[in-house]
Amino acid sequence: MKSLPWTLLACALGLIIWLSLALHNTENKRHALMSGLCADPVLKGEIDARCLASVHSRAHWWQHLQHGLTHLHR
Fold this sequence. Notes:
Layout: H1 3-35, H2 49-54, H3 61-70
């Protein structure tokens, strides 16, 4: 019975870390799209997928996490 709380804690921490990484990635892409950082230079009005996969639209990862947690977007 002593291992059940530690197992639940490890699962909860793993879920929190996984959700934080997903929120960071989503907010990074959202901010890059809203800022126009990944506009395709050849096709106007389109998005460069390679740029979107590698862009860092803010200086630090925690800024994405903070913005994603404090601002609810529709």
